[in-house]
Design a protein that fits this description.
Chain lengths: 168, 370
């Protein structure tokens, strides 16, 4: 909860009680900018949306992929971080939504996604939320017709699904 | 280095009076609009630089305020700012132990990996200026305005920085450093925007990867233009001469012929050149922002061979665990090879050629370079 409303002499007063990962200017922003990231192998597919679930649009569609080479060096991680941070700064990204990795079983995520997830968690200036694919499936059943901007390709489509979950 | 305090300009003496804790070791008056003093801050116990600059009377310049508002490792840090006179102020900033990028690249041979890293750092610093909250364009990015501190690039000289208009996405064009001015900064409708900084960064990338761009403007003129220049010199004054030279550079910039891509060393992969060429192409074909440029650089980083050259030999370091050295021996180019963990090179007879370029082609085919 960001604010607690207190009734003082008949007037509601808002108290800012803090929210980890967000700066005060982000709070109350009408059009959130949300990046959805689908982690697969050693790459991150990125889609960024702004607006609301009912009415949203794509941002920076040219930038949609970032890769971290296998067995990355410090330099590789630094470049990946710089590119991701610059992307967030250029587009004023408020929130990043990433797919929740499966840690065991047949569909368990590999080392590549594990590394990228760690890099994102350690360096992202925007707050990061994790969404389970089951949540996306539930949303598709409930309000799939609202996903008007969904890209045609499978991986970018998944990134879009995660960004959509982050919209209000 | 000791500095004769009596020889310093009055403004520098006054600044030193205000900062008793500062012990000067170097004085530089090569800047266009002021002086720089480098020395030791005895209380902070670190090397600092003081920049003294001139401005309109009763007007405190925006420069230190802009720097202080940005917290990024690739943007210069400012520690203090004060006024000397009505039209002169100074600010104290971090000192860079590598000097500016221009002198740094004159003193040292840069490896491909370091060049790539410095270019990415520059773009990363720029993103802090371009972000929506700041909305600033630097407008004067060139090697002389970039500092190197512990092998890290630091953007300096914010005298030309302007805020981009929210409605048009543009700022007024800068007339500084004609060689680095993008095509859109010339003419009646001249403007600067975020992609203009991308263009200037592209030229810096071209230089970092070994491209050649002389600061001597006359060398950019064709033979015919030089003949015309002689006629103008006979008839007119210095102003006409400078206008003519600028018009020739403008023509070259607009036609995209300012940079000679053949001067880039043969070992730089084509994919790197492609990225740099896109960065310096015409306004509508360029990367729209620094993150697009950075993502392309991140793509080419994978499998980028780490070459370093001193023009007498070319060394490829740590390519799949081996180091390779191309060097001249009795009029022909031979190759030496070693494991990266070992110290001593051994001659490898698989490569022998007339020139470095042909030896490189053989090596490229043998070991699968990009």
């Amino acid at each position: 909860m960001l604010f607690e409303k207190l009734r003082l002499r008949g007037v509601f007063v808002k108290w800012y009680v803090g929210c980890p990962g967000k700066s005060s200017w982000q709070i109350g922003k009408s059009n959130m900018v949300v990046s959805g990231i689908f982690l697969k192998a050693n790459g991150a597919r990125i889609i960024t949306l702004t607006g609301s679930k009912d009415n949203h649009s794509l941002i920076a569609p040219k930038f949609n992929k970032l890769t971290l080479p296998k067995n990355p060096t410090q330099d590789d991680v630094e470049v990946f971080t710089q590119a991701f941070k610059a992307y967030c700064a250029d587009n004023s990204v408020d929130k990043v939504v990433v797919n929740r990795r499966t840690t065991s079983g047949q569909g368990a995520g590999g080392a590549g996604t594990f590394l990228i997830e760690g890099v994102l968690l350690a360096t992202s200036t925007a707050s990061i939320d994790f969404i389970h694919p089951a949540t996306v499936r539930a949303t598709d059943k409930r309000e799939g017709d609202k996903k008007t901007e969904k890209p045609g390709t499978v991986d970018l489509g998944k990134a879009y699904d995660f960004a959509y979950e982050g919209l209000s | 280095m000791t500095v004769d305090l009596d020889m310093l300009p009055e403004e520098a003496k006054k600044a030193l009076e205000q900062f008793k804790e500062f012990q000067i070791s170097e004085f530089n008056d090569s800047g266009a609009n002021g002086y720089v003093m480098i020395g030791r801050h005895n209380v902070l116990r670190k090397d600092v630089a003081i920049k003294i600059y001139f401005h309109e009377e009763n007007e405190i310049d925006q420069e230190p305020a802009i720097i202080a508002s940005i917290n990024h490792e690739n943007i210069l840090k400012v520690y203090d700012a004060r006024k000397v006179e009505e039209n002169c102020s100074f600010y104290m900033m971090q000192a860079a132990n590598g000097g500016d990028l221009f002198s740094f690249s004159e003193r040292f041979h840069l490896s491909t990996a370091l060049s790539h890293r410095l270019l990415c750092q520059l773009l990363s610093g720029l993103s802090a200026l371009h972000c929506k909250e700041k909305n600033l364009v630097h407008r004067d990015l060139k090697p002389e305005n970039l500092l190197i501190h512990n092998d890290t690039i630091v953007i300096a000289d914010f005298g030309s920085v302007r805020r981009v208009d929210d409605s048009t996405g543009q700022a007024p064009a800068s007339k500084h450093s004609i060689l680095y001015r993008p095509p859109e900064s010339f003419g009646d409708t001249a403007f600067f925007d975020f992609t203009s900084d991308v263009y200037q960064t592209g030229i810096i990338g071209y230089l970092l990867f070994g491209g050649s761009l002389t600061n001597d403007l006359l060398q950019h003129l064709s033979k015919r233009e030089l003949k015309d220049l002689d006629k103008i010199k006979e008839a007119g004054g210095d102003y006409e001469v400078s206008v003519f030279i600028n018009s020739c550079i403008e023509k070259k910039t607009k036609s995209g012929k300012l940079l000679n891509w053949n001067t880039i060393p043969f070992y730089i992969p084509n994919k790197v050149k492609r990225v740099l060429k896109t960065a310096v192409s015409s306004h509508d074909k360029r990367y729209r922002n620094v993150s697009e440029f950075l993502s392309e650089l991140a793509k080419v980083k994978a499998g980028l061979p780490d070459w370093i050259s001193d023009n007498e030999s070319y060394e490829l370091r740590n390519w799949k665990g081996n180091d390779y050295l191309l060097t001249e021996n009795n009029g022909s180019v031979i190759m030496k090879k070693k494991r990266s963990s070992n110290n001593n090179y051994r001659v490898d007879n698989s490569v022998k050629a007339e020139s470095f370029a042909s030896a490189y082609q053989i090596l490229k085919n043998n070991i699968g370079l990009p």
